[in-house]
Design a protein that fits this description.
This protein has a two-stranded antiparallel sheet. Helices cover about 75% and strands about 5% of the residues. Helix 2 packs across helix 3. The termini are far apart. This is BlaI/MecI/CopY family transcriptional regulator. Belongs to the BlaI transcriptional regulatory family.
């Protein structure tokens, strides 16, 4: 795995990814933050990137041209994972909301993001619901055999919610699903228990 670049190094790499191989002067003019920097500062950044093997340097006459050695996905993926873990404790939803509030999206970017959200939203939700239903039914059956009919519903819902929250990836969703399913299952079990008495 390549070394992790600093913030200024990431900016220089973003210039190379979007504009292709560039000289130090080209990188200096295109840095995204737009701050005034000395040529020697950017030269030091490019040399540091070369030492870290994140860029390749080629010489043509007196000019040196730098090219990214890794794709944006390879470097940004690692940086994004680190950022998500360090700044948001791994909570992707919070990170996305913070990023969205930081700027504006083009219509094309918005469409791409919506497409990705739809694709990702459907996968875990199905697994969580199935897990919640199974766990809630098991706990409801056990509790219905042991507890009096009136107390079954609340106890079962709580136990199922705790059990499912441990197993399912989306804890809040799992708790809500577990409570719903558990209440239904508990009511059925309570009716059966009442009929037997």
């Amino acid at each position: 795995m390549p070394a992790i670049p600093s913030n200024l190094e990431l900016q220089a790499l973003s210039v190379l990814w979007h504009e292709g191989p560039s000289t130090v002067g080209g990188v200096l003019e295109s840095l995204p933050d737009g701050k005034d920097r000395a040529y020697t500062t950017v030269l030091s950044v490019m040399q540091s990137l070369e030492r870290k093997k994140l860029v390749k340097r080629t010489r043509s006459g007196r000019a040196h041209t730098y090219e990214a050695a890794y794709s944006q996905e390879q470097i940004a993926g690692k940086a994004a994972d680190d950022f998500l873990t360090n700044a948001f404790g791994g909570r992707l939803g919070e990170a996305l909301l913070a990023l969205l509030s930081a700027g504006t999206l083009t219509p094309e970017e918005k469409t791409n993001i919506e497409r990705e959200l739809k694709r990702h939203k459907a996968m875990p939700a199905k697994k969580t619901t199935k897990t919640a239903k199974k766990a809630a039914k098991k706990v409801a059956k056990k509790a219905a055999k042991k507890a009096p009919a009136k107390k079954v519903t609340k106890k079962v819902a709580k136990k199922a919610a705790k059990k499912v929250a441990k197993k399912a990836p989306a804890k809040k969703v799992a708790k809500k699903a577990a409570k719903k399913v558990a209440k239904k299952a508990a009511k059925k079990a309570a009716k059966k228990a009442a009929k037997k008495k």
